[in-house]
TrEMBL record:
<keyword id="KW-0472">Membrane</keyword>
<feature type="domain" description="DUF1468">
    <location>
        <begin position="19"/>
        <end position="153"/>
    </location>
</feature>
<dbReference type="Pfam" id="PF07331">
    <property type="entry name" value="TctB"/>
</dbReference>
<dbReference type="InterPro" id="IPR009936">
    <property type="entry name" value="DUF1468"/>
</dbReference>
<feature type="transmembrane region" description="Helical">
    <location>
        <begin position="126"/>
        <end position="152"/>
    </location>
</feature>
<feature type="transmembrane region" description="Helical">
    <location>
        <begin position="47"/>
        <end position="68"/>
    </location>
</feature>
<feature type="transmembrane region" description="Helical">
    <location>
        <begin position="88"/>
        <end position="114"/>
    </location>
</feature>
<feature type="transmembrane region" description="Helical">
    <location>
        <begin position="15"/>
        <end position="35"/>
    </location>
</feature>
<keyword id="KW-0812">Transmembrane</keyword>
<protein>
    <submittedName>
        <fullName>Tripartite tricarboxylate transporter TctB family protein</fullName>
    </submittedName>
</protein>
<keyword id="KW-1133">Transmembrane helix</keyword>
């Protein structure tokens, strides 16, 4: 009797894999719709600006079909339980960076992202990780803004070095 119940459990599709397949197909559809505007731009040549995006879209469609087949076969390995705590720390860091970037500048905003991401990975000493992240990000800002002449958002800390 347990063999029959295992067969019925194996017949159930992997809903997470089906969701991934749907996202892959949606991304492919967006690419194909966007690339349809570029079809006339190729001129006399068969290769134009739409060629590579078409390939990418068809590859994504192929991956979506493959994912659906594997979802119904049940060939995906069992996944571990998702820990929500680290995900919340990292999402909070991304949200803080987006909120702080405009007025605090690149170094402070990305340093906060660094500190909260480190907390998500288990390093909970924010009074250490955030200043370390700010120093690393200030160094990165100096390289990008000073040497490469790229415009990253400048805040009060970056204005000290301008």
């Amino acid at each position: 009797m347990s063999l029959d119940s295992n067969k019925t459990e194996q017949r159930r599709p992997d809903w997470a894999a089906l969701a991934i397949a749907a996202v892959l197909a949606a991304i492919a559809a967006v690419i194909l719709i966007d690339v349809s505007r570029l079809k006339g731009a190729s001129g006399y040549s068969q290769v134009g600006p739409a060629t590579v995006p078409d390939w990418i879209a068809f590859a994504l469609i192929g991956l979506a079909i493959w994912t659906v087949v594997e979802a119904f076969r049940g060939d995906f390995p069992t996944r571990e339980k998702q820990e929500t705590g680290p995900v919340i720390w990292i999402v909070a860091g991304l949200a803080a960076q987006m909120l702080l970037l405009r007025f605090a500048g690149f170094s402070i905003a990305t340093g906060v992202l660094f500190g909260l991401t480190a907390a998500g990975f288990g390093k909970r000493k924010l009074w250490v990780t955030i200043p370390v992240g700010i120093v690393i990000c200030l160094f990165i800002w100096l390289i990008f803004a000073g040497l490469l002449q790229l415009a990253l958002p400048a805040g009060p800390l970056e204005r000290l070095f301008l």
